Amino acid sequence: MADTKASVTHNDDRDSISLEKEAGVAVAAYRPGLSAEDAEWLDNIPLQEQRRIFHKVDRRLVPMLALLYLIAHLDRANIGNAKIEGLEASLGMTGTDYNIVVAIFFIPYILCEVPSNLVLAKFSRPSWYMGTLVLCWGIVMTLTGVVKSFGGLIATRFLLGVFEAGFFPGAIFLVAQWYPPNKSQGRMAMFYLSSALSGAFSGLLAAGIAQMDGLGGYEGWRWIFIIEGIASVVVGGATFFLLPDRPSTAKWLQPDEAKFLELSHLATRGLKRRNDDGETARKLSRWSVLKMVVGDYHLWLQSLVFMSNAVPNYGLKFTM
């Protein structure tokens, strides 16, 4: 019975293509997930116009993601600068205490990434979710500057891992909403570069802030957390207004520009749109998709490549 239904569906698709041919629509205009009319409209957009639209998105989305990722790396790695300024002595830390503080961040960071994106997908305005994450980790970072014990430092680092976990996968999710797969990688690389930029000046910034030692009765290392935490709170508040959500809600896009981006998203991902009768094609469950992704060996190869970069990178950030 299932084979019969599949055959009927396949025949219907071929019939629809034949009808489109008779109506004068080129077969090249047929794309899974789009009506014949939308596919033809999309294929008639000149390449130069497509580039102009994507560059327009670049100016709005990529710089904001780069700034947020820069802030995230400053906040997670500034504990290394605080250590130089006397963190361990002030809190009576000995032996492997510092190593534990560094490691505790990554436990929730690893565990919360996938669940965070599942939550993000339910938001009609991703900027609200992302902005909330930045606000929360900014508050946690600020409070790190007033901890009185090793246990308090452990708690703040754990919470920092919880809230920062959602940003990077959330940023990838946002990029995927705006760009087709063949244009996503370059944009991801652009904002990922900001993590390297953070290492270029974080030490100088921390050294400058540490000169506030004694101001208000706080040591210099405390001011590093407080000042950088307040900066994160400010940027988090701006995220609600400056981070684009989706093409359909972007007031800075013309209607045709938003339509192009939405149709490109649907076409390149093969999503099924509602047909004329209001029926929807069967969709894979999220768990089925997750199982398919986890079973892809490319994912594990990419993970190994990322680890080969992250391990020495974080080792330098936290110990030098």
Automatic annotation (TrEMBL):
InterPro entries tied to this protein: MFS, MFS_dom, MFS_trans_sf
One MF term in the entry's GO annotations: transmembrane transporter activity
Subcellular location: Membrane
Pfam families attached to this UniProt entry: MFS_1
Membrane-spanning segments: 61-79, 99-120, 127-146, 158-179, 191-211, 223-243
GO annotations of cellular component type: membrane
PANTHER family: MAJOR FACILITATOR SUPERFAMILY (MFS) PROFILE DOMAIN-CONTAINING PROTEIN-RELATED (PTHR43791:SF54), PERMEASE-RELATED (PTHR43791)
Domain of life from the UniProt record: Eukaryota
The keyword Transport is assigned to this record: yes
Record domain Major facilitator superfamily (MFS) profile: where: 61-320
Principal subcellular localization: membrane
Record's bilayer topology term: Multi-pass membrane protein
Native species: Elasticomyces elasticus
Keyword terms, alphabetized: Membrane, Transmembrane, Transmembrane helix, Transport
Protein name as annotated: Major facilitator superfamily (MFS) profile domain-containing protein
